[in-house]
Specification:
The complex is a heterodimer. By secondary structure, chain A is an all-alpha fold. Chain A is built from eight helices and no strands. In chain A, helix 2 runs antiparallel to helix 3, helix 3 packs across helix 4 and helix 6 crosses helix 8. The radius of gyration of chain A is 18 Å and the shape is elongated. Chain B has an eight-stranded antiparallel sheet. A four-stranded antiparallel sheet of chain B has the order 8-7-11-12, with helices on one face. Chain B has a three-stranded antiparallel sheet with strand order 2-3-15.
Chain lengths: 184, 278
């Protein structure tokens, strides 16, 4: 991230901040969508986060830390969005599947669906830790810093999330049988 | 059985899939808000900053609440709630009142493929456009299960699902009545649901609940397609009606949060009483 852009944005330069937004928007969308598993919710969360970031930008002491700072705001916006819809039954719009899945043929249609369902059953906080670890590739201490939670909490959430997903992931290793009832 | 490394590879592959592009209309709306909103001056004290940040997020979300979804985007189908009121004709086509404030009068809902009408007598309801009417007070709501739940959570805190085999109103209600960690207030009780046999189960979350404070709460039952239902904190109460509609189990539940105004329960009951299956 260009430090000069952040500095200008901190001084109230709206054009500079819009440039920043254009640079980080897709990344934020990728994170929010993977945490919330819903495009609509993700759009709202990213929008809320970017607007909050603009309003609070002067409180950012170190422009070099802009992206981690933004990711924390974004994660909180995801939590807020999930809570706002807490009573809504989030329709599980499975990402459209195709005949092939790029480089990783291990992920079959059936097991992609099972993973999707299993992922949605995790708490939003667990999903956030998984996304930061396995999607962004952050270490556990980095996740703790970015989310503002203790390292022990990161480890705990990661452990429980992986345990919950394990059954679904392991199912990928079993031969599928159309006669078998799919496990929940 | 996969190794941990293989599991992680599969998970990474799964997370690599999905949306990565923020639509232009979101950029445009962000820009509009940036032009409108001033930057805040930094204040001292993390509590103040956090409070303001939280308030800002809340304010933005409230603003989104009243913003109609952007047109011509797939996201518009279930996104931010619109302020437009609904009509029976519009809900008839989608099987549920569209997102936004629900106007008084008759609306159409479709549950497990069965059409039903509901009669809204108060203006205090907001539809999520999918399956849920939320009481404006925030004190509760009614969930119309467009697809009847497939099972309960054997462990509501660890989110371990347990499918109900050969689901019937008896099997489903019995499963709901034995969810670990809940307090069974009553049921399963055989009741008449506007001319259809039904079972009513009333559960509340006790103070001893080991989860449920904060999102996403204490899970109760789930549907493979629509997701799970949960309670958020001790004292929250949920009533589940599992109805036999010509041999098909159909599920509606309504919950009131702890300390909600009694009017919420009355309004929920009014909506429930108005359901007429076709």
């Amino acid at each position: 991230m260009d430090r000069d852009l952040i500095d200008r944005a901190k001084r109230g330069d709206r054009e500079a901040f819009e440039t920043v937004v254009r640079q980080v928007g897709d990344r934020c969308m990728g994170i929010a969508f993977r945490i919330l598993r819903d495009a609509d919710l993700a759009h709202d969360a990213v929008q809320a986060a970017l607007i909050t970031a603009w309003c609070e930008l002067r409180s950012l002491n170190d422009p070099e830390r802009f992206e981690p700072w933004l990711h924390r705001i974004l994660t909180n916006a995801c939590y807020a969005e999930a809570r706002r819809r807490r009573r809504s039954l989030v329709a599980l719009r499975i990402v459209p599947v195709e005949e092939t899945y790029g480089p990783d043929e291990m992920l079959t249609v059936q097991h992609r669906d099972e993973l999707e369902r299993a992922f949605r059953r995790l708490t939003v906080e667990q999903r956030a830790v998984l996304v930061f670890h396995y999607y962004l590739g952050l270490s556990m201490p980095e996740i703790g810093q970015r989310l503002g939670i203790p390292l022990g909490t990161v480890k705990s959430r990661l452990h429980h999330a992986m345990a919950a997903l394990r059954a679904a992931v392991d199912a990928d290793a079993r031969p599928s049988s159309p006669q078998q009832e799919r496990p929940a | 059985m996969r190794t941990t490394t293989e599991r992680e590879r599969v998970l990474r592959a799964f997370l690599e899939e999905g949306l990565t592009e923020l639509p232009d209309w979101v950029y445009a709306e962000v820009r509009t808000e940036i032009d409108r909103l001033p930057q805040r001056r930094p204040i001292r004290g993390s509590i103040g900053r956090i409070a303001i940040a939280a308030a800002l997020v809340a304010a933005v979300l409230v603003a989104n609440w009243s913003r109609p979804p952007a047109p011509n985007t797939p996201a518009a189908t279930g996104g931010a709630l619109a302020t437009t009121t609904t009509t029976p004709a519009s809900s008839a086509s989608s099987g549920f009142p569209p997102a936004g404030q629900v106007s008084r009068g008759h609306q159409i809902v479709t549950l497990e493929g069965v059409r039903a009408s509901i009669n809204i007598l108060s203006e205090g309801w907001i539809s999520d456009g999918r399956s849920r009417l939320e009481h404006m007070s925030g004190g509760g709501g009614v969930t119309f299960w467009r697809s009847t739940p497939d099972g309960i959570y054997a462990d509501p805190c660890a989110h371990v699902p347990e499918r109900v085999a050969e689901p019937s109103i008896d099997r489903l209600s019995a499963a709901a009545a034995r969810i670990a960690g809940t307090t069974l207030v009553s049921g399963p009780s055989a009741v008449d649901f506007n001319g259809h046999p039904a079972r009513l189960v009333v559960l509340t979350l006790p103070a001893s609940a080991t989860c449920g404070v904060g999102d996403p709460g204490f899970y109760l039952w789930y549907d493979d397609v629509y997701g799970g239902q949960w309670l958020a904190r001790p004292g929250d109460t949920i009533r589940a009606w599992i109805i036999d509609v010509n041999g098909l189990p159909v599920w509606v539940d309504g919950e009131t949060v702890a300390g909600a105004d009694p009017i919420v329960g009355q309004d929920i009951q009014q909506v429930i009483d108005s359901i007429q299956f076709e």
